[in-house]
Amino acid sequence: MTHKTHVTFSINAFLLPVVSYVYLTNNSIDIIQFNAVASGVVLGSLLPDIDEPQSHIGKRTIGISNLIKAIFGHRGATHYLIAPSIILLLAIFVYQSNQIYGLFTLGISYGYLFHLFGDMMTISGIRRFFYPFGKKKPYWILPKKLRFYTNNYKEHILNTALTALLGGQIYLLYILEGFK
Q: Is residue 180, in this structure, part of any structural domain at all?
């Protein structure tokens, strides 16, 4: 998946429960807390590809990216379920001392997880997703006919649909007066 699709996929996954909460409870949410989580989701949706120097985030962290790729390869350790789990535990500890930073870190974990789900929609999938458990076989979340290569027409259609959905969810938050 390209970075654009990772971001729209992760933000949509974040907004769906937020919009549902606002709609079902008729409550609004704190804009500062929302922005903290949303910012973390965007960063988290890009972070796993730090293991690829040609990725959007890899080009901005070239030394770190080259080192991580040399040690783990692309879709290696940064694409294991254990990574967002560790970030989630970190978020719990950070939240105790600073709520906003904790929510930002929680957002990173959430975006990271949905990046991994996005990669499991591609032809390659993710090997060793459940490391250190499980087998080396690839894991996918889509049937074979729906999987796609990165940056091909199927991904562009998906990203177009996700962008429209994103606009719809933001509009719903606006008309529901979802922020305070």
A: no
Q: Which residues of 152-171 are buried (b: 16+ CB within 10 A; e: fewer)?
A: eeebeebbeebeebbeebee
Asked if the structure places residue 108 within a domain, the reply is yes
DSSP 66-111: HHHHHHH-TTSGGGSTHHHHHHHHHHHHHHHH-HHHHHHHHHHHHH
Q: What is the pLDDT of residue 1?
A: 93
> Would residue 104 count as lying in a domain?
yes
Residue 180 confidence class, pLDDT cut points 50, 70, 90:
confident
Question: Among 13, 45, 108, 105, which Cα is nearest to 55's?
Answer: 45
What's the CA dihedral at 143, 145, 151, 154 to 10 degrees?
Answer: -110
Token pair recorded at residue 142: 């889509």
By the 8 A CB rule, do 1 and 154 touch? no
- Residue 122 β-bridge partners: 148
Q: What pTM value is reported for the model?
A: 0.94
Domain span at residue 81?
3-175
Contact 152, 2 (CB under 8 A): no
